[in-house]
Automatic annotation (TrEMBL):
Keywords: DNA-binding, Phosphoprotein, Transcription, Transcription regulation, Two-component regulatory system. Residues 11-128 form the Response regulatory domain. It comes from Acaryochloris thomasi RCC1774. One of its GO terms (cellular component) is protein-DNA complex. This is Regulatory protein LuxO. PANTHER family: REGULATOR OF RPOS, TWO-COMPONENT RESPONSE REGULATOR ORR33. GO terms for molecular function: phosphorelay response regulator activity; transcription cis-regulatory region binding. The gene is luxO_1. One of its GO terms (biological process) is regulation of DNA-templated transcription.
Length: 285
């Protein structure tokens, strides 16, 4: 019986310290040579960690008993190193409770070394990789749908608020009254979105509060309202997400939600302080 070929090449990380078992695995994987399979072997968990930090893998074949780690703790550590990479466990222990526990923790499959052969191993690899790819595609479609919904809501907010505000106050928006300044604000806000994204990706501890306060004070100079902030936010988001992949678009939308709320807060605080100063009673001599 032959296995169905996978169209895309597989990059496989084998974490196994037993030389004899490694030779068997290499023999079992020979039928997959036509699929341009690339294999990296590590005998220590610490070496596997370095490999996972430096390159991308489609699947991990994991022995739970390593020189520097044993049992399900090995799998948990691998999950911590590479939470998005599917894992098939290869164990010398035929333990049903252990296998069920591993699958419940997120392993794609649990194979025992004394029962595995080429057909079983290749089928497990195929199923694990394809299942993971389908899940990724489904997740990307869901994120794309959510991103489109969020962008649609953002685009509709300024128009709705503009009509109500104009009727109540007979005032034009910042975009209409000062178009050049509006574009400068959009660019400045866009740079803050980039900084927020870098902060998230690289886990930087720096805060954007000072820069957001400066933007709020600049906006207050033009006596802007919530409508103007939303228009700036929407324009910046549309610019940043126009040609971005869905993952980056999602990240931009998530980070910008916090930014716009924080900016609104600083703007309200600035107006509140201004009103207190203006309305503060004068002390008679």
């Amino acid at each position: 019986m032959t296995t169905a070929p996978i169209m895309e090449p597989i990059k496989l990380l084998i974490i196994e310290d037993d030389t004899g078992d490694l030779e068997l695995l290499e023999a079992y994987l020979e039928p997959m040579e036509s699929e341009v399979i690339e294999v990296v072997v590590c005998q220590w968990l610490r070496d596997a960690k370095q490999q996972l930090e430096s390159q991308r893998f489609d699947l991990i074949l994991l022995d739970l008993s390593l020189p520097d780690s044993r049992g399900l703790d090995t799998f948990r550590k691998i999950q911590g190193f590479a939470p998005t990479v599917p894992v098939v466990i290869l164990s010398g222990l035929s333990d049903q409770d252990l296998s069920l526990q591993a699958v419940r923790l997120g392993a794609q499959d649990y194979l025992t070394k004394d029962q595995v052969n080429s057909q079983i191993l290749l089928r497990s690899i195929h199923y694990a990789v394809e299942r993971h790819r389908l899940l990724l595609q489904a997740g990307q479609t869901e994120r794309q749908t959510q991103n489109e919904r969020d962008l649609y809501l953002l685009e509709s907010l300024p128009t709705q608020q503009s009509t109500v505000t104009a009727m109540l106050y007979n005032s034009a928006s910042l975009k209409a009254s000062f178009p050049d300044e509006f574009q400068q604000m959009v660019q400045q806000y866009g740079r803050l979105m980039d900084l927020a994204l870098e902060k998230r990706m690289f886990q930087l501890g720096s805060s954007l509060s000072d820069q957001l306060q400066a933007v709020a004070e600049n906006l207050a100079f033009y006596q802007v309202g919530p409508r103007d902030v939303i228009e700036i936010h929407t324009a910046a988001v549309q610019t940043k997400t126009a040609d971005s992949p869905s993952e980056k678009t999602t990240a931009y939308l998530e980070e910008s939600r916090f930014l716009v709320l924080e900016l609104m807060g600083y703007l309200v605080a600035y107006y509140r302080r201004y009103c207190v100063r203006v309305n503060q009673p004068k002390i008679k001599p």
